Amino acid sequence: MDFSQMLERPRRLRGNPLVRSMVRETRVSKSSLIYPMFVRDGQNILEPIPSLDGQMRCSVDRMGDILEDVAKSGVRSVMLFGIPDHKDEVGSQAYAEDGVVQRALRWAKERFPELYYITDVCMCEYTSHGHCGILCGHEVDNDRTLPLIAKTALSHVQAGADMVAPSDMMDGRILAIRQELDKNGYTGTPIMSYAVKYSSAFYGPFREAAGSAPSFGDRKGYQMDFHNRKEALKEAALDVKEGADILMVKPAMSYLDIVREVADSFDLPVAAYSVSGEYAMIKAASQAGLIDEAAIACEVAASVFRAGAGILLTYYAKELARWIDEGRIG
Ligand code: PBG
Question: Is 120 in the pocket of ligand 1 (CB under 6 A)?
Fold first, then answer.
């Protein structure tokens, strides 16, 4: 055989780790990672979350235990979820001045000012029925929920949130929040919209962690049907028009086609949320001795950026930072 005409040899650029990292098409850096964390009412609590092995729930006074690790790892941003002791029909702790997220922000901004604080804006952790808004019969009433979502976002920003991230999936919520923030002088505070949020069984371990599973029915009446692609573009386009600054796709792993499409279709930065079920699956499979946790977690994280996301929310953020330092990803 004569191979003299084979001019293209892709293997030339794979022969050495230095050249491999030189020609890499996707870069993963610590500054593009966001670490989600759970803050609950109560005192002196730092407890493991059974459904999310390796993740902790803390009370406000113990946030330092977690934030210190985050800051040390080089991850710069956190996403705060609140777990109140008291829930009611209208989720009043979501927008209470002394609500758990509001207190968490005041505590943390003072002690860890080097971090960037994003808050999840939703009602499901705060309502007695576990739905993401105000009920009218067994339906979530979109338009009666909007003012409460806007009020929650404003109270987070007043308590120090650097950015708000509404995850409720009510129609018109980005505009409602934007107007409320602007009216109160917070024109410079960005909104990261959970623009494309599917109704997904991948949220199971999170609902266990936050105690936010709906007490009846499901979220299919407001979160998206996982069969749909064009609807994702419609949702994203609406949020762009309403003033969103960042578009998020959620979950990540089974929705990379959507991440790619949203990234190609809009000029805004795109985030992807690698949700609790994705994390739990990797943990469980690695504990069963079936896969190599770090290798899989790195591969999965890189796939999200390769699909076009510029920002990744992941429970693996701190470990990824370490794996970046170790050269396993980056
Ligand atoms: C709603 C919210 C959920 C998640 C983020 N924000 C749960 C839901 O919609 O039921 C899920 C995150 C995860 O699974 O990691 N506040």
Answer: yes
Please return the burial class of 125, using the count of CB atoms within 10 Å of its CB with bins 0-12, 13-18 and 19+: buried
Predicted TM-score of the model (pTM): 0.97
Catalytic residue at 283? no
Residue whose Cα lies nearest atom 7 of ligand 1: it is 203
Tell me if 124 CB under 6 Å of ligand 1: yes
To the nearest 10°, the Cα dihedral for 97, 103, 107, 108?
-110
User: For the chain, what are the domain ranges?
Assistant: 27-325
Task: Judge whether 250 counts as a catalytic residue.
Answer: yes
User: Along the 330 residues of the chain, how does pLDDT read in single tens digits?
Assistant: 888 899 999 999 999 999 999 999 999 999 999 999 999 999 999 999 999 999 999 999 999 999 999 999 999 999 999 999 999 999 999 999 999 999 999 999 999 999 999 999 999 999 999 999 999 999 999 999 999 999 999 999 999 999 999 999 999 999 999 999 999 999 999 999 999 999 999 999 999 999 899 999 999 999 999 999 999 999 999 999 999 999 999 999 999 999 999 999 999 999 999 999 999 999 999 999 999 999 999 999 999 999 999 999 999 999 999 999 999 999
314 phi and psi angles, rounded to 5 deg: -155, 145
Q: Which atom of ligand 1 is nearest to the CA of 212?
A: 10
CATH number of 27-325: 3.20.20.70
Atom of ligand 1 nearest to the CA of 276: 15
Pick the atom of ligand 1 nearest to 223's CA.
9
Omega of the bond leading into 251 within 30 degrees of 0 (cis): yes
